[in-house]
Design brief:
The structure is a single chain. The chain is an alpha/beta fold. It folds into 2 domains: 14-81 and 163-180, Response regulator (Rossmann fold), CATH 3.40.50; 84-152, no CATH class. 37% of the residues lie in helices and 16% in strands. The chain is built from 6 helices and 7 strands, in the order αβαβαβαααββββ. The protein has helices at 14-21, 34-46, 62-68, 90-101, 109-126, 131-139, and strands at 28-30, 53-55, 76-80, 142-143, 151-152, 164-170, 173-180. The strands form 2 sheets. Strands 1-2-3-6-7 form a 5-stranded mixed sheet, with helices on one face. A two-stranded antiparallel ribbon has the order 4-5. A hairpin with a 7-residue loop joins strand 4 (142-143) and strand 5. The longest helix is centred in the middle third of the chain and has 18 residues, at 109-126.
Length: 183
């Protein structure tokens, strides 16, 4: 395994990618946003590299597809949670959201909604906005959410049934490769 580093302002990755190319990698992983991963995807293709670009959730955007163009093809990303159409409350949430805001649901919006609902519900049950009073109630949350049938937290405060989805660019669009958990 070879590691190379860059920064969040870089857009020219040819020197880094040329170094990586020498090791004939199976994949090229970049953990950053589309403003870097999109030009990187283009430069991977320009250098004739066959390894797919693999990235995280900050690359799974329509902007990545636009910026990378045809070079986006084959890129693989992971994103916490389920696709909106697979969320138990996804369809109803999408309809309400688009009516209210006149735009498409943003990636993290349903999770923010569930988190805020859980917190406000805990405050109401605790009869207080004092964290010392409502946090124990929040920790015991067990409710139906938009994102999951049962929204509940483990001892560390992580979702008990959080999911993850792996996407791949096929035909210029993000397609689901696999979804694990989260239902």
């Amino acid at each position: 395994m070879r590691r190379e580093f860059t920064n969040d302002k870089a857009v020219d990755f040819k020197a880094v990618l040329t170094n990586i190319k020498r090791s004939n990698p199976d994949i090229i992983f970049y953990g950053g946003a589309e403003t870097q991963s999109a030009p990187m995807a283009k430069q991977v293709k320009e250098l004739g590299m066959k390894a797919p670009l693999v990235s995280g959730e900050m690359s799974k955007t329509d902007n990545f597809l636009k910026l990378a163009g045809p070079a986006a093809e084959g890129t693989v990303v992971s994103l916490a949670g389920l696709p909106l159409d697979q969320m138990p409350g996804g369809a109803a949430y999408e309809k309400k959201y688009e009516k209210r805001f006149g735009s498409k649901v943003q990636t993290y919006s349903p999770y923010a909604y569930d988190g805020a609902t859980a917190m406000m519900t805990a405050m109401i049950k605790a009869g207080s906005a004092d964290p010392a009073r409502y946090l124990p109630v929040l920790a015991a949350t067990n409710m139906q959410g938009v994102t999951t049938k049962t929204l509940a937290y483990d001892a560390r405060g992580d979702l008990k049934d959080g999911g993850i989805t792996v996407y791949k660019v096929v035909g210029g669009k993000w397609t689901v490769l696999e979804t694990v958990g989260g239902k």
